[in-house]
Structures are given as C-alpha cells and as structure tokens.
Design a protein that fits this description.
single chain, alpha+beta, GMP Synthetase, Chain A, domain 3, SH3 type barrels, 2 domains, five-stranded antiparallel β-sheet, three-stranded mixed β-sheet, globular
C-alpha cells in the first residue's frame, strides 16, 4: 500500500505554503456524510487572515489539479488551526515550551489517558509536562493527540 493521502498532499503543498511565508500545521482527508474534504491548516507567527487562506487555496488548487493525488472528488478547505492548535512535529514541542497543552494517549499510562500540563520540552523521544509541580514524561510513541490548551 502506498503513502497515506495526507502525506502525499503534505509533500506536494508544503513548499508552496512556505513560499507564501506560512506554515502548514496539519492535513486532514476525511469523509463527512457523502462528501470528502481535504483540510489544510495553516498558520504564521502573528496569525492568519482570510487573504492567507484564499492565497493558499488558489495556489494549492492548481497544484492538486495538476498532480491529482486524491482518489476521489473532494472539497478543499483552508483554515487556521484555531486556539487549540495540534502539536505534531518536533518543532511544535520546542516552539510552545511553557504553554499549557493537553495530551491524549493511545492507552492508559500511569493510570490516565489524558494529561494537561505545561510543556517543559522534548527529550529522548518523550514529551515532558509539568502538572502541579510534578514532571510527567510521556513517550511520543504512545501519544494519540497533542494540542495547545486554553488557559482560563
């Protein structure tokens, strides 16, 4: 079986998005009711606006039409990752040190499957969180999902 659709799309569109001065945060290819959606989540240091989304949509549409990496018809959506931005890449865990994050694990780890704490950093393929003055070390291979969390 070949590369997942998301990886093919990411490899194709990431250089164009970077040329526009933006970061590709995530790619989702998902079926909702009768339709397939290709969602690109983009960001930049001071946040994105509608023009950024429109520019990426136009640039990427042309590229995707030409290379046709998707097996069926789809609707393209380009948007911000939102306030609870996903953390996926090593750079994300470095960039957001000190921020409150939420991690869901694939299985129960130390009695829990969800951890919320301040991101201390990344070390030896593990994410280090601080929660109530205690450090929790979570191996990256057990992490299902990691996001920035809202602080109130």
């Amino acid at each position: 079986m070949g590369q997942p659709v998301e990886q093919k799309v990411e490899a194709l569109v990431k250089p164009i998005i970077q040329e526009l001065g933006l970061e590709l945060v995530d790619v989702e290819y998902i079926k909702e009711s009768a339709h397939w959606y290709l969602r690109l989540y983009i960001d930049k240091e001071d946040g994105i606006d509608l023009d950024d989304c429109t520019n990426v949509s136009h640039a990427v549409s042309e590229l995707l039409d030409k290379n046709d990496p998707l097996p069926q018809a789809y609707m393209l959506e380009v948007s911000s990752p939102g306030l609870e931005r996903p953390l996926k890449k090593e750079e994300d865990f470095i960039r957001f040190q000190g921020k409150l994050i939420r991690i869901q694990t694939k299985q129960i780890f130390q009695g829990y499957q969800e951890f919320t704490g301040y991101l201390v950093g990344l070390e030896n393929e593990a994410i280090i969180l601080e929660y109530e003055k205690e450090k929790v070390i979570l191996p990256r291979n057990i992490i299902k999902k990691a996001n920035l969390a809202l602080e109130f």
